[in-house]
Structure formats: structure tokens, C-alpha cells
Input
Amino acid sequence: METFHSYSLRFRGKQRVVSQGQIKSKIFGGKRKGQWKTTIFQSILFSEEEICASLKDENLIGTGGSGRVYKVKLKTGRTVAVKKLCGGRREPETEAIFQSEVETLGGIRHCNIVKLLFSCSDEDFRVLVYEYMENGSLGEALQGDKGEGLLDWHRRFKIAVGAAQGLAYLHHDCVPAIVHRDVKSYNILLDEEFSPRIADFGLAKTLKREVGEGDGFMSRVAGTYGYIAPEYAYTLKVTEKSDVYSFGVVLMELVTGKRPNDPSFGENRDIVKWVTEAALSAPEGSDGNSGSGCMDLDQLVDPKLNPSTGDYEEIEKVLDVALLCTAAFPVKRPSMRRVVELLKGHTLACTE
Output
């Protein structure tokens, strides 16, 4: 069994400084003078030149608010994902995202957290290079063309457990503890075997540092609409229970196949309200495809799935855990370590 160790934010990445005089890149503005810094976190053979030369539109696989992501095949035959952040040191938000990714992912080693291989930077650009995930994100797999890979419930359950283990590692095994702050299906990546990796640590915060600078309070809300814990919007306090709530939403997505704010829920209803109301309205002692009879799962389960009777029991267990995770009061939510235990353990009693 693989053992994962706690880490210090004084990560031990190997650094090297490279002259830019010989690097010509349309992406980085042509021939340049000066130096740029590369920090290596994983053993990998590469050259900065081949990374720069590959940041072309034909290699673009994703865009977001913080930058663009490219699929790059190295000369060694290895494929990596390269994120080029918008702006450079002159952009405070870009710099904050870059430093957060480097300081957190640079010291993490866990099979359910994406690996940061190396970073490159100078005054005008920031580049982060990760292991490439063949099946994209969980959100894309549930909602997009790759959905055929998630027609099997057992595969979805494996993703739920793996993602929970990754978050539990961040909360309980890292020193200081890390809160991701943007847990969502699109930030859970899937490898060639659909094993999950938690990704995108641009908003992540360490609890020790934040508590020391103001008792864990942040200046603005971070996260994605539909996944943000209700208390976070008015307290702005960073705790692990914010991630727990977001993960509960992801569990509901895995079961239902619906987005957190699917229009089918109706006005002023999100997936948490929809699932909670379905659980509370279930007739007592109902049978059929409802596991132990606590919920009528037929209206909740993704129609693309064709679960067996045994699968329904496991699906109900996942929904029970999801309801605990999305409890209105943070104190009533389980820790991520407890979530892992519940997912791996026996079926829970009905949530009151």
C-alpha cells in the first residue's frame, strides 16, 4: 500500500534559470533577452523551448478565466497539460493563482491529486505543466460527448471514493491543512482508467497561514456558483466544511447526471434543494428501486445509468452522504475523512 506523507510549504522543487536569448516563441513575444525561472517538482525530461513552441492554437484544449490549457507531446513521447496564465507579475490575481498552485501542488504527492511537474516564469508570463489526464474532467464526462465512459455506476462510485480520498488528504494529512475552495466536477480530472485527480489549486488556501492573518477570513467569495456553501457568502470564513459542502454537490451530480443549477429544477432551486426535497417527500416504507426504502430513487438516478438492485443500495448510500455533506449548518457536516469511511462502509440510516 502506498504511503503519503505530510508536507511543508517550503517545498523542495529543483530550480534552474534559463536564458531567453535563444528562445523564439510567438506566444511569449518573439526573441527576448533576460532570464526565466523553471522549478521542477517531478522527474521529467523536457526543454523549455519545446514547451514554448507547442503553445499553439491547434494544441489548445481548454480556456478559463485564469488562462489557457494546451496538450503538449514532449520529444520523449510523454504527453503533458500546459496551463499558460493570463498576464504576469504585473497582474496581482494571476500572480496569486500561480503562487497558490506552486506552493500547494509543488509539495503534494497523492494518487488522487493531479501532479504538477514543473513551472516556468518571468516578468511577463506564468506557465504550469501538469500530468495529462486522458478523459478530461468529470464535468465534461457527465455532460459532454465523453459521457459513454460513465454509463457504469461502479465507475462513478470509484470516482466518488477517489475524489473523497484526495480531499481528505488535503484536509487531514497536509501540514498545514489545505482548503481547495473550488471543488466542482470540472476540477476533478480523469485519467485513462477514469481514476480521479483533484485539480486547479489556484484558489486554495492553507488554514494555518490564513488563520494567522485574520482567523481564516477572506476578502471576497471564492468558488463556483452552485457549489458554494451557504454560510461562506456572508461569513467569508475559510474552513474544510466549505469543501465538504461542495463535494456533496459533486456526489449529487454523480448520481443524477445533472448540473448544480439545471433549469429543470425550477426557479430558485438548485440540485441540493431538489435532492433534499425528493428525500423528504419520499413515502415512509416505500419499496421498489429505493434501496432500504428511504427515497424513491427512480426520479433521482441519471437515466443514462441502468443500475442493478445492488447498485441502488450503493446509490442510496452515496445520496445519504451527499445530504450530510450539504447540511445547512457546517457543524452538522462530516469531515472528509469521515466521508471516506461512510462511502466505503455500510449503508447509512435515512437522514432525518
Summary: Confidence is low (pLDDT under 50) at residues 1-12, 17-33, 209-214. Residues 220 and 236 are 7 Å apart (CA to CA).
